[in-house]
Structure formats: C-alpha cells, structure tokens
Amino acid sequence: MAAKTVLNYLPRKSIVHDLTGTTKLTFFLLFTFAGMVTYDTRVLVALMACSFLFFKLSHIKLKEVRFMMVFMLVFLLLNNIFIFIFDPQQGTKLYGTHHVLCHLFWRYEVTAEQLFYHLNISLKYFVALPVAILFISATNPSEFAASLNKIGVSYRIGYAVSIALRYIPDIQRDYHNISQAQQARGVELGKSEKLWNRLKNSVNILLPLILSSLARIDTISNAMELRGFGKNKKRTWYVERPFTAKDWCALALGVALLVFSLVVTFWDGQRFWNPFI
Predict the structure, then answer these.
(1) Which of 98, 210, 231, 241 is 20 to 30 A away from residue 71, measured at CA?
(2) What share of the chain in percent tops pLDDT 70?
C-alpha cells in the first residue's frame, strides 16, 4: 500500500480548485491578515465559519489532511501552555480587568480574561489553518510558482518553491520505501518496538534518504542548467490561467472580509473586544 503523504496537491472538481493560483494566493493573504489583525471574538467566529465553509466547498476530506490538523492541535496546545507559564496575566493586561476564577500557586491564577485570551488565540489558529491547508492542497505547485511571479516575486524564487512542494511527496515516498527495506533487513521500526529504539533505528533511514535527495537535486540542477534556466529576466508559464468571474468574486470576497474585520475591530478604537466591562 502506498505511503500516505502530507502537504501535497490534491486535485478535485470544486469551485476552489477552479480559481487561479494568483487568486488563491491573494485571497489567502487577505484572509490571513483579516484574522491576524483582530482580537474581536465575534469577528474570529465569523471568519472561522467562513474558513470551514471554504474547506467544505473544496471537497477535500478531513482524513486526507489529518496529519496537519493533528500537528496544528498539538502546536496550539503547547502554545497555550507556554503562554500561561511565561505570562499568566497577559489577558488581564490586555483587557484591563481582573476576574479571578481560582488561584493556583505563586503568581499563577486562572482569570476569566486569561481564558478569554486563550480562546481568541485558539480561534486565530482555526481561522488560518484550514485556509492554509486548503491553499496548499488545492493549488498545483507550478501554478503556485506562476502566481508568485505574477505578484512580483522573482520567477527563480517561485520555481524553487514549486520544486520544493512538488517533491515533498517524492521524499515521503522514498522515506517509506527505505523504511520498508530496512525493516526487511531486520531493523525494527514498528509500534511493537520501544520508542527510543525506534528513534535510534530511524537514523538508518536518514542517510539513504539524504543521499537520494542530493542525487535528485543534482539531476534537477543539471537539467535546469542545460536548458538555460535563469538566463532571461522574465519567463512565461504554461499553467498560468486568465482571470474569470469566479476569480474576481473571490478577490472581492477577500477584500470584503478584510474590511469587515477592520471595521468591526476598530469601531470603538480598541483592537481587543472586552466582554467583561
């Protein structure tokens, strides 16, 4: 059975996939900025609902991006823990009120403001991550490179990003194949082995994986050099598509969501909405 891959392009028949790479990149930047700039819970909940709706429209199944979702949840949990450890009064400082729910020890106490701050931090993750995963999973790497070049990024940088995204699945497949070969030679990597032994045995995979990756890099760089890549200041893109009505509607929606976030957030001159006043 083929190895499961992450951070790879998942082709589908959906309205999201029909958009051009430039549209998806621009919308992603607008939507992410709309979520980053605000700490208004009402705005974050509305953006999160939009984010989940876009994910639903893409026809990408949750199980196909489960690894990234789990990674995000673990990172979110660690982030909240470290915020509380290093500054348990951050919420109180931001909102200007102080409602103690329970005292733990020393300077550590659970306040309503701190919990509310953690809620907003978590909502920001749930706003940005589905759209980020959607952007990666619904955009062809070559089209992504074309979109970067269209917004002013050098085509050399865009092509480097494209190659990196395109070969992530290949590297994962190589890792799986090398792992199977090592296990056939008696190197235990299964769940039955202790975690520390599995980590040590995984080192036997890294060297062949690095060597195979270097060989692939050498092959690609030689092929690009023989074809004169980088000689000219500009280039055309085979996968670049013209804008359609769907693209303009998506861009208008992105701008509208950003304006909505800014207006609601700064309506009263405060970035942090405080329901405790």
Answers:
(1) 210
(2) 93
